[in-house]
Amino acid sequence: MIHIDEIRLYLLRLPLVRFFETSFGRTTERQILLVEVVQDGISGWGEVTAGEHPFFNEEWTHSIWEIVKEYVAPRLLGKKLERAAAVGALSKGIRGHNMARGGVETAVWDLEARLLGQPLWQRIGGGARPEIPCGVSIGIQDTVDDLLHTIDAELRAGYRRIKLKIKPGWDIDVLRAVRQRFPDIQLTVDANSAYTLKDTEHLKQVDEFGLVYMEQPLSHDDIIDHATLQQQLRTAICLDECIRAPRHAEQAIALGACRVINIKLGRVGGFASAIAIHNAAQAAGIPVWCGGMLEAGIGRAHNIALASLPNFVLPGDVSASKRYWTRDIIQPEVTVNADGMIALPEGAGFGFALDLPWIQQLSYRRETLRA
Asked: Which end of the chain has fewer CB within 10 Å, C or N?
């Protein structure tokens, strides 16, 4: 039986090793909200994966604090639950705000796994493989030469898939240069909704580059236009922003809007929803992979667990801590071996120790919520 005595919130500032740029803009520092749920002195931890601004979706770090405090936490504190999978139902009346809800939900899954003495990946039904394959997401660079140098460094580090952020003006010519330099690598692109159907003829040019997929080229809330575009392309479309619930995945599959799905824990509201999307895609023969949101160590550890489910057959955005942080908030930090793989941790919960003094030092806002 799960009963949450306290929910503790921590807001951190964590500078990136190097800027990360998408069609939304350039990020140099992450503001990260951590959620600690406590039962009988035992803690489970979650990480809210929203950005600093409401550009990826309607959520942003500071808005989430209030949603968790005023709406999510009161629905959980003092309740008795049979299992962590029941957490999402308590807050389903809150429209949207999946990242706020998911940050709390994943913390409860971590707590449940710790209470049972199980690894989190085992608790969610993962462990299909002892290691998960890793790719990297490379943001828009200042120059093409910078991009080529970055790709070369990531390949030498062992990463199995390269994903490039694109936008109008940084797409076809850039891809041509990349393919000329690296003709055989597993390559994908992510447009973060930077195009419309009016760009169909332009986007057809991606077919010449042998991409594994093109991610979310059209609107963040669209499925129908993606179905139209997919009919015009040989390249597989991967959907990201518009898949926020299992029913969206089912609709996209039924309409032929994609051939791949990216699953992000925060975007879909936590593990229960992510598992349901995974299962729906698996039943339809649609491969999935685990997307990233510039997570610190807790969110990264949750992604490792998620990516161990059997239908995560494509390398995801789960990569080494050192790509983003000079010092992560977990110990040991996440590392990738020479074969581009991350081993599943063996410990209870998400499997890494917390660097609590560092978390305290980075925190500039804290609050404890009680029933």
From this structure: N
